[in-house]
Fold:
Amino acid sequence: MKDLSVGLERLSDFDEIVDVRTPLEFAEDHVPGAINAPVLENEERVVVGTLYVQVSAFEATRVGAAMVARNIARHLETTFADRPRGWRPLVYCWRGGKRSESLAVWLNLMGWQARRLDGGYKTYRRSVLDALTALPQQFEYIVLTGSTGCGKTRLLRALANAGAQVLDLEHLASHRGSLLGALNGQPQPSQKAFETALVQAMRAFTAGRPVFIEAESRTIGRVALPDGLLGAMHRSRCIGVHAPHEERIAFLLEDYGQLFDTPDAFKAQLRKLIGLHSHQRVTHWCRLIDEDARDQLFDELIALHYDPAYARSSKTHFVELPHAIPFELHPNDADIDAQARALLDQLRM
Structure:
């Protein structure tokens, strides 16, 4: 049989990338732009695996082959029904084995020029890990530092609007980074999917132009930053973003105000601070939620939690922080884009 496999360097040669792994595998991570056309569904893969362990490899292959054949037939009637005669798909599974080979053979029998990815997703994943080591060292970073509520994320996105290169880690992580940073209705990606998105973002940058990035801890919610990027951030020059105290309270009320809609969940989050803060203090904050004392709660969180936590972590990690360029931001003003342009002008001086 003709060898249908091609290397990772050929990804851009194809009209479409088809991931034949299960929906659960695809959801955890996949090659960017790929569609999911599983030749085994989640439950079917469990059945085949169980047969392999408990009965025999032959029985697992026999049952699995029948399942694969039915699923391929379904995809030919639905998923691929509208593909043109000259369609050129690249197919992959976990290791470039039987699942991708099965679909690639049938697609070629149909007359399409299908190929399978040599080494499958495993090869792609290895390339992502290699890139996470090499890519962060290729760029100069400018780190936006400053405590919670000063509007760093809004400034970062305004810098992008002004044409600057920006790496928005909180957007990629679907999380605002702090204890209360979960985004309503937006689950975080898996660690692997976060790393895939991070590599895609960094590959779009132009070397020789600075990349603006917000100061983050090692973890953003439940995903972790790669060591190479974290180390590069810690060595980079800093912008010290400041905002007036009352404006920070207003900012937090706008960004986190929806937490008061689910007071029990809000209080459960605050109780995670017991240990860093006394039981008595956290109980007091929970009482402020019950009293809907929003301004007082965020005022105290800024003074007693966020600012001390920022001072401890930033002074330890960001070596250029003592030389940070100060920048006062008014995060709630409508002219945030103009403020970003003013910062860029200041940096060109």
Observations:
- The domain at 5-129 is CATH 3.40.250.10 (Oxidized Rhodanese; domain 1).
- The chain has two domains: 5-129, 139-348.
- The chain is about 50% helix and 10% strand.
- The longest helix spans residues 294-317.
